[in-house]
Amino acid sequence: MADTATPNVIRRADYAPPAFLIDTVALEFDLVPDRTVVRNTMHVRRNPDASRALHLELMGEQLEFVSAEIDGQPFPNAHAHDHGLLLDNVPDSFELTLTSICNPAANTTLSGLYVSSGNFFTQCEAEGFRRITYFLDRPDVMATFTVTLRASKADYPVLLSNGNLLEEGDLPDGRHFARWEDPFRKPSYLFALVAGKLVALEERVKSGSGKEKLLQVWVEPHDLDKTRHAMDSLINSIRWDEQRFGLELDLDRFMIVAVSDFNMGAMENKGLNIFNTKYVLANPETATDTDFANIEAVVGHEYFHNWTGNRVTCRDWFQLSLKEGLTVFRDQEFSADMAGGATDEAARATKRIEDVRVLRQMQFAEDAGPMAHPVRPESYVEINNFYTMTVYEKGSEVVRMYQTLFGRDGFRKGMDLYFKRHDGQAVTCDDFRHALADANGRDLAQFERWYSQAGTPRVSVRTRYDAAQQRYSVTLRQGYGDVAPAARETQKGPLLIPFAIGLIGNDGRDLPLQLEGEAKAPAATTRVLEFTQTEQTFTFVNVAQEPLPSLLRNFSAPVIVEYDYSADQLAFLLAHDSDPFNRWEAGQRLATRELLTLAERAATGAALQLDDSVVAAFARVLTDETLSPSFRELALMLPSEAYLAEQMGESNPAAVHAARQFVRKRLANALKNDWLKVYEQHRTPGAYEATPEAAGHRALKNLALSYLAELDDPAEAVRIASAQYDAANNMTDRAAALSALLNAAAAKGGSTEAQQALDDFYQRFEKEPLVIDKWFALQATQRGSAQRPVIDIVRRLMSHPAFNLKNPNRARSLIFSFCAANPAQFHADDGSGYAFWADQVIALDAINPQVAARLARSLELWRRFTPTLRDGMRAALEKVAAHVKSRDVREIVEKALA
């Protein structure tokens, strides 16, 4: 299934409207696994807004061409080739009927129409529809679709497609049919069909306007008991979108279908959302609190796409963040509202912290590497490679900045105008920006740079207090520092940065914020400064005492703030800042500073020592019962090894691991009694509850257990973890106990308790694929030791009967977990991790290039590591470059090596 064509660079500047438009599509499928016949009847006309073309060029891949007809007559001037179909001398307006054949059973790419567990599924975003039939497979060609499915009734009793069911019935040869109609125009990437042996959990709800809607969650029969949470999440999403944005479900029914073979998390096909089972199936025995939260977020995300992505879609793939960044923002707000409503800032801050941690660890790293690109990219070779953290997560932050500038009401006004102007259209990021600007009477021309400039901005802060005049000046300077060449060439000038600030007095309380020129201070103690110049000074007046600044509150812009806080100042902010995000941020800064100092010492073999003040700061948070358990868990979690390594001038994963483990052991031993007390205080006896409050207690309790596993003598932790494992009535506690046992055993090169728990875990859940994914991941991410390197465990697990490289979830659980989430073991000095990585990228490339390309990105920052590691990574990249054939992987490795 590899694509050996020479890659062509596609550029945003070259966009041209399609020469032809398609108004209606009628598809007929005769579904047979190895030979599905597709009959495609389209009404085609020339686009009056495009240059006149001599030929109609349709996209198509892995298709067997059978016939073409125009207006009911055979059309001889149709020429099939490897990448499509060329039709010469077509009229200005005509009905085109094409018949072709595809082989879903052989489609291991999981793009287009494919077979999984004996059922038919589709995945058409970004360019999968061309694997189903010849078509103008681009997002700005929008049509209404009618779909007729025919298949064996015994083998495929359920036949689904987009929209509303028009009719269904039996056929004389043991087959049956179903005909579906989607009344809304959509691009081909939103097409979907499903056929197979499935069952559904159903609910009927009424929309805000009183219309009855049928909701269905379709799964394989043995998974029906794991669908309730997904259904509840869908209902909550529908209600939230009505209340927050006035957007109703526009179809008679909405369907979710779960499939175990899926390249991504889920797909928002109009009215028929196809999901990875990972983001649908959950019950307390098989899913963790994180799984429950992720399901709620992903169900929300895909449902919200019904308007931000379906009703209004993107004109071209360069505008991908128009739908993805906006919808990530919407799902983040939904999750925050589910946790804390609109007013519980502490609960909402927990969600905000989690989102920013992901952004800083993954998107900031992307900005620093060879794949750096703006939120709206300027070029690509393979669009699948641009479903990135920048497009999604940084794109979400760009959308959030509109809300920060205009408030919730102003943002809602902008959204209302956006839908009024563009419902049913394929539009651009600029169209969204103009709607927000016009609705709020603002000029946002400068804000466009957030879409066109790559790299992570840096804001350096200088402050000056004039006690005599009671004036406090804050000078902000923006730039990018030493960024990747791919980012540097995009930078045109200063950004409009909404910079939220507070000032804290000696007693820990917020001070009034009266800017120079204002008659009086506003009531709010957080101000959003509109920072628009390369350097800009903001002066606060009537400041009675020298304050401590609380900078970039609630992470009001995706930037790196440079301000030289002392350790004492950070400890003060950790204790007193009224902004929950910045309170957490102060602790992270304090820990990061200490950990990087220790890593530098570890790299030279020097002795390690942790200042008592750091231990005391952690102790204050650990024992502060006024803080929520979920906040304490996040505040007490050290920055990740991957994030810390990226902060070093020369990344040294082994030194970072040594430093981080030293700090964890020091905190474990120094605060042992506090950890034990917290563990006991935050048990959650009784039936499992999937609520944010209960999840917070479990999270803090299990964090305490993970620290106890670091004790010099972990016998007590092993006893506690073993008891928790045996008594657990939920996957959150069981998996946490198993993880603690594995890490407690690492120093001893293994233990009977850990191995017994691993064996028991597998036997209990052998028939639960998603749980076995956890079993693989726990082993791939365990600490390991010189006597028991994790690479040996991973290689052995590759030959386990339950491992299947063709299943993306299984590949991610073992291979990706080791390469991306176990840096100290993956970056072993002997290069064994890199050799393993190269072998797996090459193997995956032949099966599923999309998945292979995501794995390939593990080494894109290779130039930032120590010389020994660099040499090993370069050799592995060169091996991959010499063997892979797909555009997907070649774009990644060639940019990395360039």
Task: Give an overview of the whole structure.
There is one protein chain. This protein has 898 residues and is α+β, with helices and mostly antiparallel strands. Among the domains are: 1-103 and 128-167, tricorn interacting facor f3 domain (Immunoglobulin-like); 345-562, Sandwich (Immunoglobulin-like); 766-898, Zincin-like fold (Alpha Horseshoe). The strands form nine sheets. The protein has an eight-stranded mixed beta sheet with strand order 6-5-9-3-2-12-15-14, with no helix packed on it. The chain has a five-stranded mixed beta sheet with strand order 17-18-19-21-20, with helices on one face. The longest helix has 34 residues, at 389-422. Residues 230-450 form the Peptidase M1 membrane alanine aminopeptidase domain. Keywords: Aminopeptidase, Hydrolase, Metal-binding, Metalloprotease, Protease, Zinc. InterPro entries: Aminopeptidase_N-like_N, Aminopeptidase_N-like_N_sf, PepN_Ig-like_sf, Peptidase_M1, Peptidase_M1_dom, Peptidase_M1_pepN, Peptidase_M1_pepN_C, Peptidase_M1_pepN_C_sf.
